[in-house]
Design a protein that fits this description.
The protein is α/β, with parallel strands linked by helices. It contains 24 helices and 14 strands. About 50% of the residues lie in helices and about 10% in strands.
Length: about 675
């Protein structure tokens, strides 16, 4: 991106500072995207504003630029498809100039091979051999003659392009490097004026071997940094040339795009044109600054079906824009040029079109504009019958009809032709946008992109201010607030510690991996299998009656023993009891309860190991004293008593619901 102008720097500083403030706020940085705002800022402060003209080859891009500037700068001819990129920038009066960059021999060879493939002829092995070039040019002339002219068919256009390419290589061989692009100034060619340099570059043979042309000319439309860029066709024979156009459209420096489309002449949009529209609309630097030009609109004057299909296309696919223009760049440009001619030079035949008229015997070639002018006068239906009575005579040549009609109708016919071409409407719209609407719209777009960022930043600052305002401002108040926070933190730590103790106790009681607790001796295993029997169902075994009711022991299919109180629907008076193997049942009070050490009450694995060590004291029985010690430790941390065991429930082994379900 080019360095910003002095006016742009005054805007860049505060906006950049705003974006930096946003990035300093973690809460905002994570969900706010500043990409669009940064792109809008770059456009608003850039010293140049590039308008790219893009479209298929022979769509009329170069002629449209010539018509826009009302100067014949760019070469334009149907069938002429090269990889030339043309840039037109502003220059003060008296400082106009041209910079020419030539293709390399390798690039010319590649383009010649692509055109030969389309024509179905063998590509030359060495284009520096004169006999090879002469043979190919002879084939091209034969194709053009067979098709009836250079612009009569696609094959004729391609043959003409190849012929120009070979001519240009021969004529400029001393300026063409085998692998590099050579650049020459206007002075190196000894051109005195821009017109002379432009005339050289416009010649078909020279234009065919130029890679880039930079014009610096004096025109009010180019002021304020406006740059017009003409690109190769998106369907150019050489794929690399088409890729150049797409890269230019996607370039951040591109500010606006003029899509020159051919449905007016072809009836439908091609796949390349559809891709062009999608690529243009996806560039965040372009936004809605897209102008759609349906060129060669004069084709619809003579074909009702084409006109209807174009109207339907516009209604269906271009409803969301009003920047749609229908033009005939050929008629509009040359119409503006012949305003300055007269009968003395046969209305441009001896001046404007002198290079395109070749005399074969006694018959002159007819310039393309002359053919289209006669067609317009005879069949377009655009000329009011009460104002124009025009007769196109079949026994006169096209050039003779052209000169006679202009002699009869004069300036009024030229004005009507320019009006019907749509060029004035397009020129007025582009001029108004670039000179009046561009800067305000760029600033408005920047403001729209900055608005949500500013709102979010303001809200974040207000929330921070309110939070600071809610804080105590005296020393005692600050102490009280810190103590409340400390109490809250300690409470959370105690609750976490209690939960860890509960989990450790439940794991020790409920896990079948604790052999000391389970008392997995052989007699107990036989007792379980006998209780289960062959049916696999649990059997209620007689047990000793507890203090509040009778208790029974049930053996599960997996061999575990459950009290009747643990079964669904058990009597309320039944209490769970732990039963050891036969002859080994022990009272809970029979064994003294070991005291838990502080090191046994840690968290995680240390806590689990501590619980297991307590349980290992009495095989097969988990004493009340063990759980009481653990409950006391947890209660000391949290002030809660979820693990506290009542004194009257000495017969219970564990009060944890998870442990009961396991026993």
């Amino acid at each position: 991106m080019t360095a910003p102008s002095p006016q742009g720097q005054s805007l860049q500083v505060p906006v950049t500072r705003l974006i930096e403030l946003l990035r300093q706020e973690p809460a905002l940085r994570s969900h706010l995207d500043t990409t669009q705002a940064e792109a809008s800022l770059a456009k608003a402060i850039a010293p140049t504003f590039e308008i790219v003209f893009a479209g298929a080859f022979s769509a009329g891009k170069s002629m449209l630029i010539n018509a826009l500037l009302e100067r014949e700068l760019l070469y334009s001819a149907e069938g002429h498809a090269t990889g030339t990129e043309c840039r037109i920038a502003y220059a003060e009066a008296g400082q106009e100039r041209v910079v020419l960059t030539f293709m390399s021999e390798a690039e010319i060879r590649e383009q010649a091979a692509a055109l030969c493939q389309r024509l179905g002829v063998t590509a030359p092995a060495d284009i520096r051999q004169p006999d090879v070039v002469s043979l190919l040019q002879g084939l091209c002339r034969d194709v053009i003659a067979t098709e009836g002219g250079e612009s009569k068919s696609e094959r004729a256009k391609q043959a003409s392009a190849l012929n120009y390419l070979l001519d240009g290589f021969v004529a400029n061989g001393d300026r063409i490097h085998p692998t590099q692009n050579q650049t020459y100034s206007m002075e190196q060619f000894q051109f005195a004026t821009l017109q002379e340099a432009a005339a050289y570059a416009r010649r078909g043979a020279n234009s065919a071997v130029l890679k880039r042309i930079e014009y610096y000319c004096h025109h009010p439309l180019l002021q304020d940094g406006n740059v017009l860029v003409d690109t190769p066709g998106i369907d150019a024979p050489v794929k690399r040339d088409a890729e150049l156009t797409y890269r230019k459209i996607e370039n951040p420096d591109t500010s606006a795009v003029v899509c020159v489309l051919k449905p007016a002449a072809a009836g439908d949009m091609t796949s390349e044109e559809t891709e062009l529209l999608e690529t243009t609309r996806s560039n965040p630097g372009v936004r809605d600054r897209v102008f759609y030009v349906f060129n060669r609109i004069d084709e619809t004057w003579y074909n009702t079906q084409l006109r209807q299909r174009l109207d339907r296309l516009v209604q269906e696919q271009f409803q969301d824009t009003n920047r749609i223009y229908r033009t005939s760049a050929l008629l509009g440009f040359y119409g503006s040029q012949i305003r300055n001619t007269s009968a003395g030079d046969r209305y441009g035949l001896d001046s404007l079109f002198a290079d395109s008229i070749r005399i074969s015997g006694e018959i002159e070639d007819t310039p393309q504009f002359v053919n289209e002018f006669n067609r317009y006068c005879a069949n377009s239906g655009k000329l009011p019958a009460d104002r124009f009575r025009i007769d196109v005579r079949s026994y006169e040549s096209p050039n003779e009809n052209y000169v006679r009609i202009l002699n009869e109708q004069g300036r009024s016919l030229i004005d009507q032709l320019i009006h019907d071409s749509g060029i004035e409407t397009f020129r007025s719209a582009i001029t108004r946008y670039l000179t009046e609407e561009k800067r305000p719209q760029l600033l408005a777009t920047l403001a729209d992109d900055l608005q949500p960022l500013c709102i979010a930043l303001r809200k974040a600052y207000l929330d921070a201010w309110q939070h600071i305002g809610s804080q105590p401002r005296d020393l005692e108040g600050i102490k009280a607030m810190e103590l409340r926070q400390l109490s809250h933190d300690l409470k959370r730590v105690g609750e976490a510690f209690q939960q860890d103790i509960e989990a450790s106790v439940n794991e020790a009681v409920a896990s079948s991996l604790n052999t000391a607790f389970e008392g997995a001796s052989q007699p107990q295993a036989q007792f379980r299998r006998a209780a289960v029997g062959h049916s696999g169902r649990g059997v209620l075994l007689p047990g000793k009656r507890a203090r509040r009711g009778a208790a029974g022991i049930v053996a599960r299919p997996d061999g575990a023993l459950l009290s009747a109180a643990d079964r669904p629907g058990a009597p309320a008076g039944l209490l769970p009891r732990f039963v050891s193997t036969a002859g080994q049942r022990r009272r809970h009070r029979a064994s003294p309860a070991p005291t838990a050490r502080p090191s046994d009450l840690g968290t995680g694995k240390r806590s689990q190991d501590g619980v297991r060590s307590l349980c290992a004291g009495t095989p097969g029985v988990l004493h009340r004293g063990h759980l009481l010690d653990l409950a006391t430790a947890a209660n000391a941390a949290t002030g809660l008593s979820r693990l506290r065991l009542p004194d009257h429930d000495r017969g219970r082994t564990c009060h944890s619901p998870t442990a009961q379900a396991r026993l």
